[in-house]
Design brief:
The structure is a single chain. The chain is an alpha+beta fold. It is built from seven helices and ten strands. The protein has a four-stranded antiparallel beta sheet, with no helix packed on it. Strands 1-6 form a two-stranded parallel ribbon. Helix 5 runs antiparallel to helix 6. The longest helix has 69 residues. The N terminus is likely disordered.
Length: 439
Amino acid sequence: MIPLLLIFLTASPAHAETLTRDGAVREALGQSPAYAKSQAAAEEQDWKRAETFSYFLPTLQVTASRYFVKQLEYNDLDFGGSPAHIPLIYPATRASLNFNWNLFDGFGNFYRYSGARRLSDAARDEADWARFQTEEDTLLHFNEAVAARELQSVAEQNVATLKDHLDQVTRTRKGGLATQYDVLRVEVQLNEANSELLRAKDDVVLARQKLSQALGVDPTTDTRELSGELEIPLTTGVDQLKLGDGQDRKDLQAAGLRAEAADRQSAAASTYWIPRIGLGAQYTLYNNLTDGMTDWDQYRAAWNAGIFLTWNIFDLGLVAKSKAAGYQSVEAQKSYQAARLAMPTDFEFWKRRYLYSAALYEAKLSDVKKGEESVRLAKAAMKAGVRTNSEVLDAELDLFRARAGLVNALKGSTEARIKLELALGRKLPNLSKPAKNPS
């Protein structure tokens, strides 16, 4: 008897490098551009948070200047006779130490820092979600590649069987036991099977390219054999799965934090009309007596310190910026609301699709068993002279369709499980097991 799941066992050449399911996940986490991008974005937001915190701290700057060529301005002073042309004296060399400290800005800096802190936390959540999504997408593409490989194996077996039938029916036609109708019928089936095989080979190539893209490697150079089987769906506990409040969904947590950050940014922008108060001081060393930069005894000092107020009575740019920030806050809130509204639908859809795929797998598994028995009985009946070659062909075609349906059911159940895990935001390790060759 042909083993029930023989189509799932593919031998790899001993010299060929193989890629396992776990190895693919590790490789994707190490090389995936999408995951690396999310990590860089998280680091970027951490430094932006540090930037907003710096607004609370004083600044200390050093400025210096040295004129090599100069043409001085003149003031004309009239002392009752000919006017005197007196040049304005500019220091040829000067250096200043400047101190500034923003004491009050209408609490805008507090809002900015609060928003930046939430954006930093959101970026970390998004990086965690990108890691989880990278793992899930890699597993999905790996299983799709395995399924494409098995479907190609089924198609190749179908073509080989039809070729045998064509040879057999051609010989029996010469002996008068078959008709031209029987020959033409097998030829039509063989042409269709060759087309299906061509499509199956294309699917293998495309599935491998998608997997290589998920791994972050060049698809044209990745020739490793896949080591792994399709996974059998298990339904124990699926009915008891609950969506919860989305605490496991890092992407939703990040969206909520971004909405809060946008609200803080809007509050910060709305403080444009409040006066700013700051403390400032300056200490300057200058030489306006000689042009020598190293004439240290000619340098003199000047300094000042005071409190400064800035009040934007009218600035259309700041008004427009405040309004834009307000609408950005509304956009972020609505995006978060839309994501939460879609969450129950996604969860229910993929939960039901998984249960359907699991039921379809059981049905197709039964079809394969019945198909194998049907082929056995048809061949025995043909030897006894009570069945024709066409009836055996029909039984074998039904068996191949059942095997292809079984592979597609396993592929669909794996996709549904992974999408269900994404909808929940966590792994469901007890919902599958590898397909094995039964004894």
